[in-house]
Amino acid sequence: MENKKIYIHANITEMSKKIEKTLRSKLVKSGLRVFEELTDDTELIICIGGDGTLLYLMQEKDFPSTPVVGINTGHLGFFQEIPPEKIDDFIFKFNQGQYTVQSFSTVKATVATERGTFTHTALNEIAVKGEMTYPVHLNISINESFIERFSGDGICVATPAGSTAYNYSLGGSIVDPRLELLQVTPIAPMKSIAYRSFTSSLVLPPDGKLNILPCDESDRMLNVIFDGRLASYDDVQSITMELSSRKVNLVRFDDSNFWDKVKDKFL
Ligand code: NAP
Asked: What 8-state DSSP symbol labels residue 146?
């Protein structure tokens, strides 16, 4: 049987590049094959960097279904499973098949404009905000039921994996990534007798669809921010957000526990 094919992506920091070099020679010594291109028969992607590097890689490679493992050289490392000092242990366990693959949901936005329809996918979240500094006014529906006329800075739609990122800073809840749902969290909602918007998060089930319609002509200039990347539109007709069929498959080793990570990184 041919040895497994590996693809490595490292961010540009000196530390990541140094780890990449060491890792390459250790992988080859252990009998694995390292390739410069990600192809359909690649069996493992190794991502060296922080969580931001993994988000970047997923966007650049258009959310491959190949299992991916992260070596953490960033700050937080929520997705990034392996500390650099445990590379030997990781190679041993990978070669022995001592790992599981955990699938993470992603969120998709379909943006209808006068020029056509555009889609964006994200592992953490997709936020819709006004293009200028003014508040935006958006009619929000869930599965065809009108919910509210939202006024404020915008709306953030987060996956469970993204619940510990921007969503958390906005006051959203931390969600176990084994759940399939989307969390819709308002960004600075206005709450007065002139403007009324929900101030807490709304949680959508797996088949839930959020529909956003600009209220006025000026609200059609919107920024759609997917995992920190920006797409600016000036002619939005509607935006629909839902769970995407694409999954990010992260390789997990037996000592990884989501709630231990939450405790370690936030308390
Ligand atoms: P960045 O500004 O370089 O870093 C954002 C921080 O968020 C980094 O510390 C990153 O961890 C951490 N992070 C990313 N995904 C996470 C997750 N699922 N759970 C917990 N922390 C997470 O930008 P970036 O690295 O490209 O990341 C883009 C993300 O930044 C967006 O998806 C959004 O969630 C987040 N963001 C947060 C705010 C806010 O909290 N006010 C505002 C804008 C964007 P590492 O250090 O390991 O990379």
From this structure: E
Q: What is the position in ligand 1's atom list of the atom closest to the CA of 265? A: 20
Residues with CB under 6 A from ligand 1: 50-52, 55, 74-78, 124-125, 161-162, 164-166, 169, 227-228
The two three-digit tokens of residue 121, written as one number: 């996918």
Regarding pTM above 0.85, the answer is yes
Query: Residue 208 is encoded by which pair of tokens?
Result: 């839930």
Q: Report which residue type is found at 8.
A: I
User: Over the stretch 171-222, which tens digit does the pLDDT of each residue have?
Assistant: 999 999 999 999 999 999 999 888 988 999 999 999 999 999 999 999 999 9
Alpha carbon of 124 to ligand 1 centroid (Å): 9
Place of tokens 């410069």: 36
Query: From the candidates 40, 41, 51, 176, which is the catalytic residue?
Result: 51
